[in-house]
Task: inverse folding
């Protein structure tokens, strides 16, 4: 059995009712550390000291700018005894980039934490550090080349396999792996009238989902407002019509994979 949940489901522009896209797996693993990471954890009544592992997809701000706040909390509040090791899997030059980000945010304050309590791993595959029973593969996707964009396939010891595409448009590296995955967490960053190669949109996501009807797609990093936000739409709260094997997820939505079936909790 594997449980995972969406602490945030919005794109960089924070549609109404959505924090920045953030996946939490088994209350230990985060995919990315967006600016709203602490707000997402607080809302869920979790602390940064419960996070053992972070999988970074790429270096855009809406995916990493929360990192200094995550370890700031660990250092001064949730892990004052400095007992926690935070394991980071990421694209190249991760220590330099994350250390520079921390130095900009809090000059001198997090240097010791980065040195003593953070392990950086840039391997393309292997055992996931800090947790038991998971292996990963990291692969290149189509986004802004300057931010070294990647997706991941996470495989649990039970055989459950979940892909996280990061930010990407349609590409062979995603499509060639979908068929072997039980669940694909995929971005839906722009509406159909914004035709760019670097993001999925409803039309291209529908095409992919129709090719793989046995795979469940969970659409996050959404451009549209949550229809249940109760607030005036910022862009639009009209969700697109998508195939039956695509679920447009909401903040705080939880899932369980058990006995080869996906259940919404």
Result:
């Amino acid at each position: 059995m594997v449980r995972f949940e969406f602490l945030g489901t919005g794109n960089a522009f924070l549609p109404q009712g959505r924090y920045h896209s953030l996946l939490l797996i088994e209350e230990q693993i985060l995919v990315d550390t967006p600016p709203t990471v602490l707000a997402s954890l607080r809302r869920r009544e979790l602390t940064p000291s419960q996070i053992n592992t972070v999988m970074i997809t790429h270096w855009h701000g809406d995916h990493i700018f929360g990192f200094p706040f995550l370890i700031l909390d660990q250092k001064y509040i949730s892990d004052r005894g400095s007992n926690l090791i935070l394991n980071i899997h990421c694209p190249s030059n991760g220590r330099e980039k994350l250390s520079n980000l921390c130095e900009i945010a809090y000059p001198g304050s997090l240097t010791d934490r980065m040195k003593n309590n953070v392990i950086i791993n840039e391997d393309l595959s292997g055992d996931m550090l800090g947790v038991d029973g998971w292996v990963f593969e990291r692969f290149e996707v189509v986004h802004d080349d300057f931010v070294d964009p990647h997706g991941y396939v996470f495989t649990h010891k039970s055989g459950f396999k979940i892909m996280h595409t990061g930010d990407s448009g349609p590409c062979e590296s995603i499509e060639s792996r979908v068929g072997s995955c039980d669940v694909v967490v995929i971005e839906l960053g722009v509406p159909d009238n914004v035709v760019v190669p670097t993001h999925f949109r409803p039309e291209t996501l529908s095409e992919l989902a129709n090719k793989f009807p046995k795979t469940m797609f969970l659409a996050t990093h959404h451009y549209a407002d949550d229809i249940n936000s109760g607030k005036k739409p910022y862009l639009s709260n009209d969700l697109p019509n998508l195939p039956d094997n695509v679920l447009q997820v909401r903040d705080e939505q939880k899932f369980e994979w058990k006995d080869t079936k996906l259940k919404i909790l």
Remarks:
- The chain has a mean pLDDT of 97.
- The helical segments are 37-43, 61-64, 67-78, 94-105, 111-117, 172-178, 202-211.
- The first strand starts at residue 2 and ends at 8.
